[in-house]
Amino acid sequence: MPPSNRRPAPATPQLNEAAQLADQLQAAGYTKRDIARIINRDASLVSQFYTKHKGAAFVPALTQILAAVQSGGITDPAELADIASPHITRRTTTSGTRARVRTKAVLITPTGTGTGRVAAQAIASGSTRLRPLIAEAARQQLRLAFTVRLAKTGYVHPSGSRTDSPGIRRDVIQRPDHSEERSYGSATTGGFDATDFAQRVDATGGDITAAVHQWLVDSGRIHPDAHITHLEVRTWRPR
């Protein structure tokens, strides 16, 4: 009988501990996106547990989450996030110092134009990644505008109401999930003073989501229990 020409199948790479724990959480009904939200990170990082063998710094937190699910019967992601938070530490360099977190540079052009947008995960943590943009806009004495997205029922005024946001450039954007995007401020209407807005952010301890929410409530545009799901901030230099 002639020898087989088939090559042996390549060995399956051994999963690291973070990936193994993530597998067990997925078996318990959580998606990678759920796990990412619980550890307050992007879903792409959880995928890198498998592809790039990352996640060692999250093993203690993942271990506590899994124990809470399997032994404690806790299933609510918010409760699991509270359990995970004290066990998440920044990774260290070989010298033992805290490693720097890589972040995208905040870009404001010479004309003062800058844009920053955040979604659900960043919204939940206060949209803090937008803070450098707002601080720089205040330093340069720029104007700014913002767009928020939330459920239609969260707005006080009906769609397209000029009482809500007169003269907005994009009007109202309807979304399939029964939410709407509405813009506040523009170069045409003058927008808002970035310095004043930065002070509002400082008053909330750096929580940009809370600062925007409070302004919308105080100005009678949204209901107090409305939940912002997306936020965009735009800047420009006044003429």
Features:
9 helices; elongated; 6-stranded antiparallel sheet; 13% strand; alpha+beta; 239 residues; single chain
Structural features, described:
By secondary structure, this protein is α+β, with helices and mostly antiparallel strands. The protein contains nine helices and six strands; from the N terminus they run αααααβααββββααβ. It has helices at 17-27, 32-38, 43-51, 59-70, 77-84, 120-124, 131-139, 194-203, 208-218; strands at residues 114-118, 143-151, 172-174, 179-184, 192-193, 230-236. Strands 1, 2, 3, 4, 5 and 6 form a six-stranded antiparallel β-sheet that branches. The longest helix is centred in the N-terminal third of the chain and has 12 residues, at 59-70. The radius of gyration is 23 Å and the shape is elongated.
